[in-house]
Amino acid sequence: MDQFISKETLDLLSYRSTLGQSLKQISLRSTPLEAILDDIAKYRSSYIDVLVQENLIGSRFKSEDSIIRKYEKTVQTGGGFKQCFNDVLGFRLRFDNYPEKYPDYFRVVDLRSGKKVDDGYRAIHLYYQRDNLAYPIEVQLWCGKDYAFNVWSHQHVYKYKTPEIGKTLYQEYSAGIIRTEQDFLARLRKLEAI
User: In whole angstroms, what is the distance from residue 184 CA to residue 19 CA?
Assistant: First the structure.
């Protein structure tokens, strides 16, 4: 299990919110978005030094635009702060196969059979949260044949198209009908024309 990000490194990357309470207790509706964005900006500036020091690649810090879109969607659906900001800092790791065991410091979310609203995305997400005041860190495992599909989907479908299109593309990818990115794009164009 040494291929995972260590708990020590995750603790270095972990950031405690300056909003003054457990993330579970923060109300999205009563906390000004500007205060949240300021808190996340402090997080962003603190993590860059650790990434360089620990030689971590493949990380991404959610853009302010993505944060605002997710915030608005979460407020509309009545979700909570922790749900909205569960992936401000994330990593994508690629393995040949999905691991069978995971370090016990992660909460494991198995998406190999799809999400609740299936858009074709397949992965395992690992979440690390140092304590209730710290933002969770998300580690996405894109393994085996799911890796190529997830790359294409994130470039051309995710956030841009309906979940039904992604699900159809994944079904055809799994059946061997779609084999290359060119096949993927050609089939996407046909689905969009319907």
Answer: 44
Residue 140 CA to residue 102 CA, distance in Å, equals: 13
137 phi and psi, to 5 degrees? -115, 130
Short-list 34, 42, 24, 132, CA closest to 80: 24
For 17-45, write each residue's pLDDT tens digit: 999 999 999 999 999 999 999 999 999 88
Domain positions in the chain: 7-144, 147-193
Q: Looking at residue 120, what DSSP letter applies?
A: S
The C-alpha torsion from 49 through 18 and 67 to 24, rounded to 10°, is: 120
Instruction: Give the ranges where the chain is alpha helix by DSSP (H).
Output: 7-13, 33-54, 64-77, 81-84, 146-156, 163-174, 181-193
Burial of 103 (0-12, 13-18, 19+ CB in 10 A): middle
8 contacts 66 by C-beta, under 8 angstroms: no
Whether pTM > 0.85 for this model: the answer is yes
